[in-house]
Specification:
heterotrimer, A mainly alpha (330), B alpha+beta (391), C alpha/beta (453), A: 330 residues, mainly alpha, MetI-like fold, 2 domains, 13 helices, 71% helix, C: 453 residues, alpha/beta, D-Maltodextrin-Binding Protein, domain 2, five-stranded mixed beta sheet, 15 strands
């Protein structure tokens, strides 16, 4: 092979006709190309990464710092207090109450989200023709694209304990009427109903995607195999969509632990009283917000966030551990 | 074992005007192996799914033996079915895949194990019993699918393009296995494919379908020899039959690329219609060196070297019509792209079709004449042997 | 420009060491504030950094400054805008521009970032800012301005925002608690005058009750509980309504108040709800009386839409023989860090705000009580008779038993637990004594600095 074969290589410092040298040179050039390619890649990542680092990761790290300080927004000199913030928290009944509320909310919401959205997804998948199915899918998804705050206000009216729709329905069914948002027992369930209504669409969509990956033939073959619908669901569909289910559960746990807007709005919101009545809807997320932005106890709020973070982390680890054992990935 | 009868079977899918199946009548004898053959969208799979009970007919009846099964759920029709993509339960082991149906039907445990052993043995799956589908090769998966369909001892065995996902070698091997299984088990089998080699090799009878209608039902041999219409003629064979539409005027035109001897011309001119359709299989065409009653002048467009023979694509040499012909010629025939050559064929190998109904009208001459013409062309080195091969 | 100045300071520019320290301090704050804003999962506080308000004021150039306030449209927002426009056109040397924002929660961040506005209207809880030495006292400006008259302000207005002897927050929009009622229902029930004692209120409620009508709707918020407690002889802090580091709720006055409401609730004469729900229920004829503030009158009248005549009365007298009330509302504060000229201009605006013409405009257009006696006197009687809520609010403002809320962020937390205790005790999910014991200990723990709120 001669250098004339490749005019691109034909320049002054090309001193050898040796083939291996040529190979090496081409190699160098392609690795240069790779480096350039990578640089372009990172360059394109940079704006998004900068936003995330500046407004998400750094503040999140900073939170660890202020959780151990007596941190006042107006003072440049912060005093290290060790675990005092955490001790204060643990001594406050309200903090425990908020954890209790968060736990209650999550424990009800996750199964409700999972099973309701799966059920709706199954209905949408099986029971409807393609065209009408589209209308129904849109109808189910629509609440999810509405603003939480605006629709929560509508739900406040629905839950009006004296003259609202919810109680009218209960009364039509000859069931006892409830105090809903004015009742310490029913306020959080009322918020749950709103949240479910608002968020189900997303989870239904995720389940529909998961179900669409279960080949129709497998279900047909199972039915020819003599299995009736419940058995097909339990033995075939349920295991096959287990990765989707796991994803929904993780997403739902994170979302419910962090639930804020609908609780804030439905229980008083901007007009005060959020988290009521009598702290019955004060979840951990809400308490973090109030502590930081209503009462300006930033370090306490940071400590609370940290506890919330640890809880979510632990939950996710547990979920991962479980999923490694029961989720079937194809 | 069960005979299957389809009467005026019709299936329309909502919304679209056309129907997927348009009055299918078919009788499948007990223990018969019937192949539904046709291009995609012809309704063969729909027919199969109707037999399986996976779809509900919009008209007509399906009988298993004497009983109408229209309203019977698929699971209660005692069917084994194999799908193109195997449709194995991906999260279950081979054993669980095989036993799922028996367990669903509440078969007693000892019986399940007995049948499982039988099937594993029969399909040589013993070593794979603990594996999951993703750990199996395509052929192994297909065997598991076959086993799963057979373990329930079905009275009807349905297969929907079971070999399409396999590579060529494996496909041939599995074809043999399926044929063997059928010889042993004699289960009434309906097999859907678009691959005529599978159809020709496996079927007792082939049902050729197109646009929701049955085109022809017959043995593989008759399908080749006596295609019922132009569609079947063109569909069967690799490649299919050349069908030429010749205006009557052209027969008397001195510049015409077609030459037919007088006797044939006479019979064509006497027939009704303004044109005639003649069909000749690619393997029945030879380079003309005299004596053929039909001769066609054409130009070589493309030559494909297939080893055993050349597959030559030609264009009829005429300004008045554009017609393509494929001929299988001897590897030593010496044609080149651009050559103008004359192809010919003996009369008994030329099929005639009605110009309007496209139905098969017979051949230009009967078999006894064939011997004469064979003799008359005995010097044609590109042809004589081939005819003997094919017939 | 600003950034370059700071940079020069770091390089050892011409500024004094003191100012260099100050600017570094601001930088530290700025960074901290950015972090903490994002740190907390629920970052409600958006960017606090509005355009810098720093203006270099040559002696005779017109001074312009920002006023941060939080009324986003509506009659109140419109009234603020109109008044500011009036001020600007009558004061060629001062230009005030309104920035509508969540001033109360954003001001600390703005101070920390070194970019506070010259003037802001914030809620009661300015304790953080006072403690952080972020606010100027209004005292010297009030003293230096001969046109300002303390005696013209109602005492409850004057003492609002008073810490030590310094006035850090001059109230800008005063409101008091009062009860709106359906006059037609009162007439139908044979009630000729609104109740003047809690006992009368209870007996009137019983008369108003029917299958379709709930006599009394109450807000579930402590601003509406404290007047009743005070009228029964209780106090907001231990022994005082203004100064103190502990609370005293576990006493006879609070017990009696809770018991009173508990009786009404268990008789079905009272329900709790949010303000908007209460207004709708009153308007639809399902409620006879609803609790609210003078500031809500416009909304109540709008909800009722003239379907019936709406009356109002201030929360009535308790066992002490007199009624009591809370005067609350947003107040003007003067963040540090601006020139004396700017601060003077800000006070000019505040003083103008208190003049009778503006007070009349303000009260007539918003339903908020006037803050000066002269302002109240200047509202025509005809207007008052068609706006009973405003009339009643003037009654409350002039009462010696109307108090401002204690200036302490801790007190906001005390009120949150008071709400809870009240709700629990009245609805019967806790005994009164248990609720008060818990309230007492939690309230004191907040007042002493521990907090989980």
């Amino acid at each position: 092979m001669t250098k004339q074969l490749d005019p691109a290589l034909d320049h002054d410092d090309y001193r050898s006709n040796d083939k291996s040298d040529l190979v090496r040179r081409v190699g160098v050039r392609s690795s240069l190309f790779n480096v350039k390619n990578k640089l372009v890649g990172y360059g394109l990542l940079l704006p998004a990464a900068a936003v995330f680092i500046l407004f998400f990761y750094l503040p999140a790290l900073y939170l660890f710092y202020i959780a151990f300080y007596h941190w006042s927004i107006l003072s440049p000199f912060q005093q290290f207090v060790g675990l005092k913030n955490f001790r204060t928290l643990l001594a406050q009944p309200l903090f425990w109450r908020s954890l209790e509320n968060s736990l209650y909310y999550t424990i009800v919401m996750i199964p409700a989200i999972t099973f309701l959205s799966l059920g709706i997804a199954m209905l949408l998948r099986d029971g409807l023709s393609a065209r009408r199915g589209g209308v129904w899918r849109a109808a189910v998804f629509l609440p999810h694209v509405t603003p939480v705050v605006a629709t929560s206000i509508i739900w406040v009216w629905i839950f009006n304990p004296h003259f609202g729709l919810a109680n009218a329905v209960l009364s039509a069914l000859h069931l006892p009427q409830l105090g809903w948002l004015e009742s310490t027992t029913w306020a959080l369930p009322a918020v749950m109903i709103d949240s479910l209504w608002h968020s189900l669409g997303l989870y239904v969509l995720i389940f529909l995607a998961g179900l669409s990956r279960v080949p129709r033939e497998i279900i047909e073959v199972a039915s020819l195999d003599g299995a009736k619908s419940p058995r097909i669901f339990r033995r075939i569909i349920w295991p096959l969509i287990s990765p989707t289910t796991f994803f929904v559960i993780v997403l739902a746990s994170v979302n419910t632990w962090q639930a804020f807007s609908q609780i804030y709005t439905m229980t008083g919101g901007a007009h005060g009283g959020a988290g009521g009545p009598a702290f019955s809807t004060t979840t951990d997320a809400l308490l973090v917000f109030q502590t930081a932005f209503t009462y300006f106890h930033f370090s306490l709020a940071a400590a609370m966030s940290l506890v919330l973070f640890l809880i979510i982390l632990a939950l996710t680890v547990v979920q991962k551990w479980i999923s490694d054992r029961i989720v079937f990935y194809r | 074992m069960t005979a299957i009868t389809l009467e005026a079977l019709e299936k329309r899918f909502g919304g679209t005007a056309g129907s997927a199946l348009d009055g299918i009548d078919l009788e499948i004898a007990d223990g018969e192996f019937v192949v539904l053959l046709g291009p995609s969208g012809c309704g063969k799979s729909t027919t199969l799914r109707l037999i399986a009970g996976l779809e509900t007919p919009t008209g007509g009846t399906i009988r298993f033996g004497k009983s109408v099964v229209n309203g019977v759920e698929g699971r209660d029709r005692n069917i084994g079915m194999v799908f193109q993509n195997y449709a194995l339960y991906p999260h279950m082991t081979v054993t669980d895949n095989l036993c799922f149906g028996l367990k669903s039907r509440g078969v007693e445990k000892g019986e399940i194990l007995k049948r499982l052993d039988e099937i594993l043995e029969m399909l040589s799956l013993g070593d794979l019993a603990k594996r999951r589908p993703r750990e199996l090769s395509g052929g192994q998966r297909q065997r598991v699918a076959l086993g799963r369909a057979l373990i329930g001892r079905p009275s009807v065995f349905l297969m929907d393009e079971p070999l399409s996902n396999l590579d060529a070698n494996l496909r041939e091997q599995m074809r043999m296995e399926i044929a063997k299984l059928h010889r042993i088990l004699r289960i009434t089998t309906v097999y859907v494919t678009h691959d005529q080699v599978e159809a020709l090799t496996l079927a007792d009878r082939i049902v050729v379908m197109n646009e929701g209608k049955i085109q022809q039902v017959s043995s593989p041999r008759r399908l080749y020899d006596e295609p019922a219409n132009i569609f079947v003629a063109r569909f069967i064979g690799a490649p299919g039959m050349n069908v030429l539409r010749i205006e009557k005027d052209m027969l008397i035109d001195p510049d015409s690329p077609f030459y037919l001897d007088e006797q044939i011309t006479q019979s064509i001119v006497e027939s009704t219609g303004s044109a005639v359709r003649l069909g000749i299989r690619p393997e029945d065409l030879a380079l003309h060196n005299g004596g053929f009653p039909l001769r066609i002048r054409c130009r070589v467009v493309l030559i494909e070297q297939l080893g055993t023979h050349l597959q030559v694509h030609l264009e009829v040499d005429s300004d008045k019509l554009s017609s393509n012909i494929i001929a299988k010629l001897d590897v030593n025939c010496g044609v080149a792209v651009g050559d103008v050559v004359t192809l010919g064929s003996p009369a008994h190998l030329i099929h005639r079709f009605d110009d309007e109904t496209e139905l098969h009208l017979g051949r230009l001459a009967n078999k006894s004449e064939r011997i004469v013409s064979l003799h008359s062309t005995s010097g044609d080195n590109s042809h004589g042997v081939r005819i003997g091969e094919q017939q | 420009m600003l950034a370059r100045n700071r940079f020069q300071q770091y390089l050892g520019g011409s500024r004094s060491p003191q100012s260099r320290y100050k600017s570094r301090l601001q930088s530290v704050r700025r960074v901290s504030v950015g972090f903490v804003g994002g740190s907390l999962i629920l970052s409600a506080c958006g960017s606090a950094a509005a355009a810098p308000t720093t203006t270099t004021s040559a002696s005779n150039a017109p001074i312009s400054f920002q006023l941060w306030e939080s009324h986003n449209g509506g009659p109140v927002g419109d009234a603020v805008t109109a008044l500011v426009n009036m001020f600007d056109s009558s004061h060629p040397n001062i230009h005030v521009s309104i920035v509508v924002t969540k001033a109360s929660s954003k001001l600390p961040a703005a101070v920390a970032a070194g970019d506070p506005p010259v003037l802001a209207e914030i809620s009661h809880y300015d304790g953080t800012l006072v403690k952080g030495l972020a606010l100027n006292s209004w005292n010297q400006y009030m003293k230096n301005d001969p046109t300002f008259s303390q005696s013209n302000l109602y005492p409850s207005v004057w003492s609002n925002g008073l810490v030590g002897n310094q006035h850090y927050r001059l109230i800008a929009s005063a409101k008091v608690s009062e009860v709106f009622y359906n006059e037609s229902m009162f007439q139908a029930a044979g009630i000729t005058t609104p109740p003047t004692t809690w006992a009368e209120l209870a007996s009137d409620a019983a008369k108003l009750k029917s299958s379709n009508v709930i006599p009394l709707g109450w807000k579930d918020s402590s601003a509406h509980i404290l007047p009743a407690i005070l009228s029964n002889g209780g106090s907001m802090l231990n022994g005082s309504n203004t100064v103190g580091t502990s609370v005293n709720f576990n006493n006879a006055a609070t017990t009696a108040t809770f018991q009173y409401f508990r009786n009404l609730y268990s008789a079905g004469d009272l329900v709790f709800d949010h303000g908007s729900t209460l207004r709708a229920d009153l308007a639809s004829g399902h409620m006879a009386m609803i609790d609210g503030t003078s500031a809500g009158e416009a909304k109540v009248l709008a909800a009722v839409g003239g379907k019936f005549k709406v009356g109002a009365f201030v929360e009535p007298a308790g066992s002490t023989g007199h009624a009591a009330n809370l005067v609350q509302g947003l107040g003007f504060v003067l963040p540090k860090g601006h020139s004396a000229a700017e601060d003077n201009a800000a006070f000019t605006f505040v003083n103008w705000w208190y003049q009778p013409a503006q007070q009349v405009y303000w009260s007539e257009h918003t339903g908020f009580a006037p803050m000066t006696k002269a302002g109240a006197a200047a509202i025509p009687q005809s207007f008052l008779s068609s706006h009973p809520g405003l009339q009643q609010s003037i009654v409350a403002m002039s009462s010696q038993y109307s108090y401002p809320r204690p200036v302490s962020d801790s007190y906001a937390q005390v009120q949150a637990v008071l709400d809870s205790a009240f709700q629990q005790a009245v609805t019967g999910s806790q005994s009164i004594s248990a609720a008060l014991t818990q309230l007492q200990s939690q309230g004191n723990s907040y007042m002493s600095g521990a907090s989980a709120l």
